[in-house]
């Protein structure tokens, strides 16, 4: 399969953030005539694609994986198509931090 974009990594190859370009490319690749057909191919509700197209919903990991599985387009190329310039997806330090469980009575043992 030929790459859809030049993979040189330069920002000028990616273009501005535009999830519509991503959806249009997927529709073409999957022979979907409209967003309703694309939503069926991706197995998502049509309003999800509408919200993504109009910038009201970000392209999350789950939908990105569905796009990859349905089209065979590598994740990096899908991200490039929508103009995602981040080198890596990162979680904030607060996310997924293990919670420390307090045992009953722990608050009374601080001074002992």
Q: What percentage of amino acids are in beta strands?
A: under 5%
Largest sheet: none
Instruction: Count helical runs.
Output: 6
Uncertain ranges: 1-12
Helix content percent band: 40-55%
DSSP strand count: 0
Would you give an account of this structure?
The radius of gyration is 20 Å and the shape is elongated. The longest helix has 11 residues. With 112 residues, the chain is mainly alpha-helical. It is 44% helix and 0% strand. This is Helix-turn-helix domain-containing protein. GO terms for molecular function: DNA binding. InterPro entries: Lambda_DNA-bd_dom_sf (IPR010982).
Please name the defining characteristics of this protein.
112 residues, 44% helix
Concise description?
This protein is mainly α.
Secondary structure layout plus pairing:
Elements: H1 11-14, H2 19-29, H3 35-42, H4 46-53, H5 61-71, H6 75-81
Helix pairs in contact: 3-4
